[in-house]
Write a structure and sequence with these properties.
Strand content: 15-25%
Largest sheet: 4 strands, parallel
Number of helices: 6
Distance between the termini: 22 Å
Helix content: 25-40%
Strand order of the largest sheet: 6-2-1-7
Length: 163
Amino acid sequence: FFRDIKPFQIIHDHLRKELLKDKLASANILSIPCSTGEEPYSIAMYLLDKGLPITSFNIDAVDISHRALEFAKQGTYGKNSFRSNNYHDYQSKYFTQKDTYYQIEESIKNKIDFNRLNILQGDYLLQNKYDFILCRNLLIYFDASTKERAFKNLSLFLKNTGL
């Protein structure tokens, strides 16, 4: 959790300045690959902790791994998931400790929509949907031609004004 909060700060600042001028506006955020869920949960906790209403954003978290998605949906984590220096306040506020693991609060858990997606195949239903796409750990696994296909699909998912 919270390995790199700079992208979350950028999302928050942009939401405050641009998207939330209209009180009914809601931003769509994509976390890909979401792996076991730490990034999308971190985004939700960060934005809520900064005072954004829970209705001001939607988070889709996608991964190709069924196993990772099932783990993420549980919202249950061990100590190893809390290795950065930025998580302490969030851990005490948004998790309940049970024996040797931590269970994320239901309101945070319910804010994330986990689904399977292969970025190389894309999904026409996601075209022009997202205001923000976080794909930090996606591209490191691909060769140049595969990266190009992934970028093409990601750009189709992103709104014209998206980041």
